[in-house]
């Protein structure tokens, strides 16, 4: 790139820093310790690469080569170095005054040299868009990076200078500085920055983001995207960002007004369709505030002739879909499509065979709220003043439906067998991770099987040098925790004795030379591979393994985590029952009752993968310990979160399914 500019020579004393050099504001870049090696190289070999300069007020601004310039200045000032003074001329390339790519030229050369300060990159990319008219795509192509990486820097390129200076001075962290980019207005950034640092408090990124939320809504947020069209039509102010997705709707009151209007329209549509007496809208559904409200549910009705015919058609199609879903070679996408269709058909059949009573409709209503990026409808609610006169009837209605009993969790034989396999894998992982205890068990089993008469002390492990073959309907979808733990145990084994080129006698000699700890690991790993499909042991039938499992695997959740593969095999009603009654998440269960099974499965999968920060201690403990009852280690009682505060009683949660 530099070869296209006119060669020239310039005295060291006539060189100055160029304001367009993206390192100009980074004094740490030119600190003596950072250029010592460069200074030594130039002193011995001379300047190997010319500087890129441009005329500025009779001087020559260094556009690219600032570190070399700093090294030359130190050499000229060092009286012990010969051949370098302020009058010494060095090779340069002259950039014309009308060149409009100065920032790009400086950035390109600096990126290929020592790593740039992160803030310099933010500013440089932003300046390239503002001054040179570049786009994220052209910048990414120029510097061989991704558009996403460029956009990531552009987000921070226009943060208020005072905040960037604070980050350079390390009075705030880089993450804290980045948080200010959530609002594109530098004036808003400055006001929030001054307010948070007024008392010299330590400022954290999350406090910055929380403070900025009160100053507007990003257009990329779910609410911002939902109301933007109407917001713009009403002339709402927008703080524009370099990238549109980070622009902010500044009038929070107008955003809230539009959102409430949309929620009210959705509530009214549902009211008219079902026939409720009233409709209302709130931005956030407050379960505590709604605790005094009652709820009515649709009861069974006999469909007309057309409806009965349609129910029969749905039943036949559901049976067909269930057979298709049993195909183990089915791709995930096709499997999910079938699930969606099942949910759709079940909802249609339910609408044909269930309806609200006239009296219930006359006193109940619907509330629309904003939840998880979409409108959520809470139907069949009864206001406190309307609830008193019909409390007896409401209670009787709930009991008559018998939903809780019909939704009792039962485990099909196929799922039961697979869960036994998964528990055996978890037990094997625990055994491999406790080599001393497993070594004792293995030796005890071998000795007692030989020296005692009868069936032996336990049939739970096959210590006969044969690895147990395990079958599972969906082995590639199960939680991999136990497999990873066993793999780690294998990697830690000393297998130096097992050289195939050596004879068994030589291998045995090397094996005997291993220390006791290494032998224990080998025996434990081998014995772990013999564990048979199993559920929790009964103390009376197998006291040995009952106590042994409690010792090495007090909680199966250390080796196994419920995931979507398991939840997909549960009925939707079961999942809601587990959430509401066993995990203490009755609020969530009621809300999810109107969702598809796929959405409920996704919620459960995320919940168990990383328990939500909003959970209470009781709920968090319940999530951390939950597993199907027969998989829990015998004697270890799972945490019961049913006493956690909930907005609905257990019967209502079951009925919501």
Automatic annotation (TrEMBL):
GO cellular component: chromosome
Gene3D superfamilies: 1.10.10.2830, 3.90.1530.30
Region (Disordered): 388-410, 635-657
UniProt feature coiled coil, ranges: 304-362
Domain of life: Bacteria
Biological process according to GO: chromosome segregation
SUPFAM superfamilies: KorB DNA-binding domain-like, ParB/Sulfiredoxin
ParB-like N-terminal domain location: 8-111
Keyword terms: Coiled coil, Plasmid
Protein name: Chromosome partitioning protein, ParB family
Organism field: Salipiger profundus
Source taxonomy: Bacteria, Pseudomonadati, Pseudomonadota, Alphaproteobacteria, Rhodobacterales
